[in-house]
Amino acid sequence: MALSNDQIDSLIGMVTSVASDELDCDGCFGRIAEFAEYHLASKEIPEAMKVVQRHLEQCLCCKDEFNALMKGLEAIDSD
Amino acid sequence: MASVKFNDNWVGRLKNEDAEVRDSALDELREFLIRGLSRSLNNHYGNRKFNPEDIVQDALIKILDKIDTFEHRSRFTTWAMTIATRVGISELRRRHCQDLSLEGISGDESLRIELPDTEQQPAGQAMDRQVVLQRLRELIESALSAKQKFAIRGLLEGLPIEVIADRTDSNRNAVYKLVHDARVKLKEGFQQSGMAAEDITAILAGGE
User: Fold this and answer.
1) What CATH architecture applies to the domain B118-206?
2) Is B37 at the interface with chain A, CB within 8 A?
3) What ipTM is given for this predicted complex?
4) Are B132 and B115 in contact (CB under 8 A)?
5) Inter-chain CB proximity A73 and B81 less than 8 Å
6) A69 chain-B contacts, CB cut-off 8 A
7) For residues B197 and A5, is the Cβ–Cβ distance under 8 A?
8) By the number of CB atoms within 10 A of the CB, which of A48, B19, B48, B111 ranks highest?
């Protein structure tokens, strides 16, 4: 089955947005707790941590986990 | 915050020689993780039922196994929650996706692109899009392996990387790298044809 137009556009987006310094999933996981602390403290994300942000924009698995992590941590903080 | 060290005493308590101190810390951590996961995974993946205590039990084993890798770049509880969240979501994701299928999509056919009908679009825009898609089709055929095509198709179908990894006897990180390498190859192929990323984006945006 051929790709739909939406899938072709998504694929083009994946291609045009690729960067050489992207983190892989393991690299993202290794820094995600530190990244979460910035979010919990509502602090600006420093340049060195923006690779984590970029990985989350590309990887639905890691983004899904990060969103769930924040949901849990924020719920505990607000208890 | 890169230079900040979080100095809570969890590691010392969890590795304490005194079993009573260790057990107390473990109970406290278990209770923290259950509270967190009960909130974070509730309603996840179609409100699937899950038992946070089972997930936390598996997570605690991993946390204790990795405890010496904790670098104090976050609170210990935040770090522990990242592990527990991954354990929990991985389990829910497997259950959610076990019925999804990529059967019928072969590696060679998985990224087949049919060129659009140029008569249905304004002449200039249609031709530009046609050129981009023609080149994309050539690059897919010449530069990507069957595994790369299959993995990308899986993502475009909405399957999580982890599930694609399961289906291909691989692991999540290897699939991410496989796809990343494919994206780089395609981007380089476009560049060698004189098509920069921003030009392609502009062409496709103009064709909508």
Assistant:
1) Orthogonal Bundle (1.10)
2) yes
3) 0.89
4) no
5) yes
6) 40, 81-82, 85
7) no
8) B111
Question: Domain residues of chain B, as ranges?
Answer: 10-97, 118-206
pLDDT by residue (tens digit) across B185-204? 999 999 999 999 888 888 87
pTM: 0.80
| Whole-angstrom distance, CA of residue A35 vs CA of residue A58 | 16
Q: Which residue of A has its CA nearest to B132?
A: A12
CB B110, CB A2: distance < 8 Å: no
Mean of the per-residue pLDDT values for chain B? 84
Q: B109 near A71, Cβ under 8 Å? A: no
- Which B residues 144-203 touch A at CB under 8 Å? 152-153, 155-157, 160-162, 172-173, 176-177, 179-180, 183-184, 186-187, 190, 197-198, 200-201
Q: Where exactly are the structural domains of chain A?
A: 22-78
- A11 part of contact set with chain B, CB < 8 Å: yes
How does DSSP classify residue B106?
Answer: -
* Residue B110 vs residue A53, higher pLDDT: A53
Say if domain B10-97 classifies as CATH 1.10.10: no
Q: Per-residue pLDDT averaged across B4-30, rounded?
A: 90
